[in-house]
Known about the structure:
The protein is an alpha+beta fold. The protein contains 15 helices and 12 strands.
Amino acid sequence: MSRSQVRRPSGRLAFDGPDTDCTILHVDMDAFYASVSLRDRPHLHGTPVIVGGGGTRGVVLSATYEARALGVHSAMPMSRARRLAPQATVIEPDHQQYAEVSRNVMALFGSITPIVEPLSLDEAFLDVSGSLRRLGSPTRIGELIRARVHDEQQITCSVGVASTKFVAKLASTRAKPDGLLMIPTDRVIDFLHPLPVGALWGVGEKTEEHLVRLGLRTVGDIANTPVATLERALGPASGHHLHELSWGRDPRPVRPDEPEKSLGNEETFAHDIDDPEVIHAHLLRLADQVAGRLRRSGQVGRTVSVKVRFADFTTLTRSRTLTSPTDVGREIYDTVRHLYDALGLERVRIRLVGVRVEGLAAAAEAPRQLLLGEEEGGRREAEVAIDTLRARFGADAVRPARLVGPPEG
DNA sequence: TCTGGGGTCCTTCAGCTC
DNA sequence: TCTGGAGCTGAAGGACCC
């Protein structure tokens, strides 16, 4: 077995060649939530396990490979997953534990190279070009990471090694589970072109259907289609982007510390709600949560949006840009309530509401305007004082009066 | 079968200014 | 004074990702 396919399962594509310019690694934990949940439950290793919400409307967050073999996959409704795998053990997610393991893994990556771009809790890109002299070739560094993640966190991960982010990401997917795949630069086209179009980053269900209708089934088909045709079919940005990817061209560097652009909370109710007062109470709580997150992260936001999903799953959003950015829950609530009321919904059954704030900036650098009728030492300072109480006595220590007693839903 | 929650990015359209 | 086009911004929706 060559070094580029360490511990790769049988039947996987092999790509031999030099890895000297393949300095981008994509590291992806295998069935992350399920693997972390099984660390404390060793007796469940090798059995079908599903991690997911226990509510009436939960979806699968993660599943072990034994459960996946039964047809279960992430984002699948739990009701369907239980039917497909009635023998599977269902575990409630423990987000605190996942966040802690994620912090440890990201710190491990940081000891390899300072250029780490986390994509989510369980995956990241690493640019190891500055670590080669200290740690060896990119493939060797990938092996080192896999060994350290396993030894220190008792979970497995897969690593893709390539000269671009996009190819590294595809390689880690092909290496799963518990493998490493390096794609030499001169073999990128051989690797890419047989893949189905859905393998391309950014091609989901709808776009794949669209492409297949055009007779484009593989990445090679995309590559051999005039870029103007793709731009007409998918729009100029997406068409051009897909064509570039199909030839393995992806100039995006690994970017550490990309700032967040928006922040929000949303909630799906256990049962659809049609009472405007109850909806208002949920909006108030969500606005309060979003404002608290903004203040904790030292940010303010300028555009406030409300999201409403109806019983038939159709969704609409309404947004409003404020004259000055805010991190005040009351101001966010007033805005989303105004947006919601302007929809004029009369006894319409609602499944979900969400509150989001966009156009984020550092609070320290953003001028703040007093709210209408607000005095210095007013609403914001009251909310900051509430933050302090909550930090000391728990999130439920202080709540708006109308939220005392949980809203229905 | 019946669809969570947290995000990003793109497209389209409308309104505004020059 | 009116009109049309370019460019910008905001709003809304959709697709996608993990």
